[in-house]
Design a protein that fits this description.
about 130 residues, mainly alpha, elongated
């Protein structure tokens, strides 16, 4: 048989395992990469903002929120908080700028295509 001295350790193990999983699960995030074949069109200009760019912005914002919470709870010292906050702000800003640049490229392509369609329509009306 087993000794009663092991009973508290067994209960602690049973109770702590799900909590440990719950705490560590956000740290384990498999890379979400989208295969190039999932996009249509031959050139990069036909692709929307990459999901990885959107994911990286959301991940940086989420990490920033977690850092803020940890600091408010007293789990982070102020120098660590400032360092992490600056890092995640830069990451979120960089990803956001990248997404905006992609959107501007797409807007320019749409405008160019609309101009071409208008010209084609005008030439057909004159024929």
């Amino acid at each position: 048989m087993f000794h009663l001295a092991f009973l508290p350790w067994l209960v602690a193990l049973i109770l702590c395992t799900p909590m440990l999983f719950f705490v560590l699960y956000p740290l384990y995030q498999p890379n979400r990469r989208v295969a190039a074949s999932s996009y249509t069109g031959a050139g990069e200009e036909n692709q929307p903002a990459l999901p990885s760019q959107i994911d990286s912005e959301q991940a940086a914002r989420s990490a920033l929120t977690e850092v803020e919470l940890d600091y408010q709870l007293g789990n982070l010292a102020e120098p660590d908080y400032r360092s992490l906050r600056d890092r995640y702000l830069r990451r979120a800003y960089s990803a956001h700028k990248s997404i905006q640049a992609r959107e501007q490229q797409l807007d320019a392509l749409i405008e160019e295509r609309l101009r071409q369609l208008r010209e084609e329509h005008e030439t057909h009306e004159h024929d």
